[in-house]
Amino acid sequence: MSKNNLAKRIKNNQFEEVFHDKWAAMEDPAKINVTMVNEACTAPEMRYIIKFLGSLKGKTILDLGCGLGEASVYFALKGAKVTALDLSSGMLKLTTKLAKINNIKLKTHLASAENFNMPVNKKFDIIYAGNCLHHSNISQTLNKIIIHLKKGGIFVSWDPLRYNPIINIYRKIATKVRTLDEHPLTCKDIELIKSKFKEVNTKYFWFFTLIIFILMFLFQRKNPNKERYWKTIIYESTKWKFLYYPLELLDSFILFLVPPLRLLCWNVVLFAKKK
Predict the structure, then answer these.
(1) pLDDT of residue 198
(2) What are the phi and psi torsion angles at 88 (to 5°)?
(3) Nearest 5 degrees, angle CA 9-CA 75-CA 137?
(4) How far is the C-alpha of 194 from the C-alpha of 110, rounded, in Å?
(5) What global pTM score does this model have?
(6) DSSP state of 220
(7) CA count, 13 A, side-chain hemisphere, 82
(8) Any idea where the domains of the chain sit in the sequence?
(9) Cα–Cα distance measured from residue 255 to residue 8, given in angstroms and rounded to the nearest whole number
(10) Which fold has domain 3-273?
């Protein structure tokens, strides 16, 4: 990495740290329903991930860019030995409080996705990156992931894709709840991941189901700079169940028939097995 790129990455990480520290300070961990957040109908990514991974009992998991800690605590509740990593000390403190509320133990580790700052012999069965890669230098992050995965270990991630024009309009509007250095995944990014792992499986989410977000904006008049739509949709999942499930079935059918439409989805889940 050139000196200019390194300086830019350091500056971006500092901005990310401050942004997420402020976000963490606004959250009340007592109000976070960990099970609901991960099992809601409108959390298809995590529902799919848990089904794919199977039993987590006794597995060592690194939650990369753990954020509020919802996934870290959820994995721990399922019997995993979890290390929650984030560059925001505020988010890590919140994760610790959330773990205590849910009567589980986990480890926290202050570091960036590009530099885990761990001994090279520290290995995990699973490294999970939820909504994280599009905030980081993907190539550098993948190199660290490979170092810290056990042989045959699983890397699982989910992140937004770049190509949907409706989502891109939302991104231009919702500037106060997002960081400027975000870079949703491209086909090139997905191919990079595939080149570094033995097996890679992909699953795409939110095509026709994106209609719900349009309804939130047009009819509920939710301000995208005052509410994080991707959080609101989880906590209001029961309100949208009647519409979400039919649209999810339609997504499955259409995306099976016309695979190129998958790139117009909002998110992609990737499962990668270490060579």
Answers:
(1) 84
(2) -100, 115
(3) 15
(4) 28
(5) 0.93
(6) S
(7) 31
(8) 3-273
(9) 38
(10) Rossmann fold (3.40.50)
